[in-house]
Amino acid sequence: PSLSTPNQAVISISCFSTPITRFDLSFDTQFPSESSHLFRRLLPFPSPSPSFPSMFHSLSVHSLIRLSFTSDSVSSLNVKMSSLLLPLSFLSFLPLSIAHSQYIPGGSSLVEKDILNKIQKHYDQRVRPPATNASMPNGPVIVRVNIMIRMLSKIDVVNMEYSMQITFREEWIDRRLAYDRFFDNESDYPKFLTVPHVKKNLWIPDSFFPTEKSAHRHMIDTENMFLRIYPDGKVLYSVRLSLTNSCSMQLQMYPLDVQVCNFDLISYAHTTKDIVYEWTEIKPVQLKDGVGSDLPNFVLDGIPPVNKECTSHTNTGSYDCLRMQLILRRQFSYYLVQLYAPTTMIVIVSWVSFWIDMHSTAGRVALGVTTLLTMTTLQSAINTKLPPVSYVKIVDVWLGACQTFVFSALIEYAFVSYQDSARQHEKSMNANTVRKAQKRRNQMEMLEDVDMYQPPCTCHLGETRPPTWSEKFRKYFTKPDYLPARIDFYARFIAPLGFLLFNIIYWSSCYIMTNAVEKELNITNIIRNLEE
Prior knowledge:
By secondary structure, the chain is of the alpha+beta class. It is built from ten helices and 18 strands. 36% of the residues lie in helices and 23% in strands. The strands form four sheets. Strands 4, 5, 6, 8, 9, 10, 12 and 13 form an eight-stranded mixed β-sheet that branches. Strands 7, 11, 14, 15 and 18 form a five-stranded antiparallel β-sheet that branches. Helix 7 packs antiparallel against helix 9. Residues 1-109 and 527-532 have low confidence and may be disordered.
């Protein structure tokens, strides 16, 4: 008989043409060595003899035995063969029973391929695994998730998105894949089987990321994924992904804002009756060293995992969900140097107009227009880095106030110039009236017949000296009687005091609103818990 099982016995008998002078009997055994003692007990020749070599009594795995008989007649050969074929026929069925045993004996050299072939013989990847909780036969499969963030970059405020590279891991129990039942001893089977390409052969949760805009797997040098099967049926699936995710950013507090970007995980087809997601108990979210420290405008405050806050309820059922939150705090130092300091200096430069003589029209107009255009250009450059939102941001309040102060300086000079022109026109009109009256008076005096002669007066005026610094100081800080000059005098003090008062109100409001937003988003508690 010839068997196709791994443990088989092949018996071949060859007879030569008559007259028979030699008979050859050969068989190849592949059954376990512990069965050799049973074979020896069944042999008709209990001791070595010329007809049965001594190696026949040390039967082992994969041994080939050839028996040679010499006989003068067929009848004498039949006697010997009848006593030999009976034990051989029984032994041919012994390996078959061993092959169908549920356990693989200790010391077997079964390789991973053989285990996988044995597992997949009755495995259907189209059917989800049995319930994780054995007490609930129809319960869901519990999938435990772990995420390691390898890189975080490209936080785009305009498009409200961010990019990151992660190692995504899922664990679940599939008892159909357990292979410890094939072995007698625990030390005989491997600790786990690593399978690199199994998506077509094994069941894997149909997880997807709702906030994902674009993503790809890494394929260099090979596909960066693996699947491990443990003896008890636990499965670990790991894959490296690069994703660009959307983030609904609230920019009311820009550039003092704190953004909370949600990264959700949900099953596409299996409802809560089929799959339930849970975070792993130990380090559900991991960060590679240095992640978040090299972001240009943000600092990563924390990544807390959140449970059961994003379960999706649709017409087709309820789908379980896990959520990871990225807490991104904008670095204010960049905006202090690039935004607040330049705009403050532009406002201060616009105040120089109050110290320039009111009759220097070209200088004051050029200064006012230049500062106003610079402020407008800076405001446009800042707005190009932000999305066109419908609400007012605190940066809009700052820029609007700075532009108002610059524009007020230009308007102040226009008012002063108008008042000075009006005063000069009034003074000119009064001078013309005086000149006409004096002319008429002189004409009347010429008609008088008075013979009076007065010699011309020779006067010597004293030499004029330049004004001292104290006189100049008093000139600028002494309230003048002339109204246009008095307006410039008041503006020199009112503008700085007004800007200082605005800064006090602005920064106090920012502090209060920032704390209110963090309290509403529960960010303060999250950061405290992460630090602990």
